[in-house]
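Dock zinc ion; give full complex structure.
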Amino acid sequence: MGDTFKQRILVVDDEPSVRGSLAGLLNDAGYDVITAEHGFDALLQLRRAPPPDVIISDLNMPQMSGFEFLSVVRRRFPEIPVVAVSGAYESGDCVPGGVIADAFYAKGRHHPEQLLRTVGELIQTSAARAINHHRQSAPVWIPRNGKDSKGVPYIVLTCTECLRSFPLSVMQEGVQEIQQTPCLFCTSPVRYIIDFSLDVFSPRHDITAEPGGE
Ligand SMILES: [Zn+2]
């Protein structure tokens, strides 16, 4: 801990310019800022350093999307309030459905002052929020990833205990409820929800459909 008491904010965004401007804004407001390029990077930092007071995370990032990252944070660091950031939603001030966050900041439409106000409020109310976060055992929220060579859809889960990722075949499409599977590495149960409706993580690309069967 430093000589002065400064609250620390972890900013997670794959765009260097966004990271830089958010860090500058928060620094000017008197916060200590650490940054990460994507979810994996952020998790490494969370394991290394004392936890930040607030996490601000983009939702659309390579390696590990913000959705997945925030769901791991909620399970693993339930005491840290989080702000989800995205340019891909039209949902006013509300946290979009399926996103495990305490607040939402719409890139390009909200003003920086609003983000600062949100961060300040989250810090003030973090103790009460932590109690709630501990009570909800948040499942891992994951987008559908793609299909394997046999055409079976799969997802990539991140274990909330050991933080390693592993693929899992999706046997039944369209099941949008909480499911559970043992971690491939440490066998801890991992709860998850597959969201088949949203695909903001990877823009839809035209896949030339394989002829049925093989
Ligand atoms: Zn594990």
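Observed: Residues 159, 161-162, 164, 183, 185-186, 188 surround zinc ion (CB under 6 Å).
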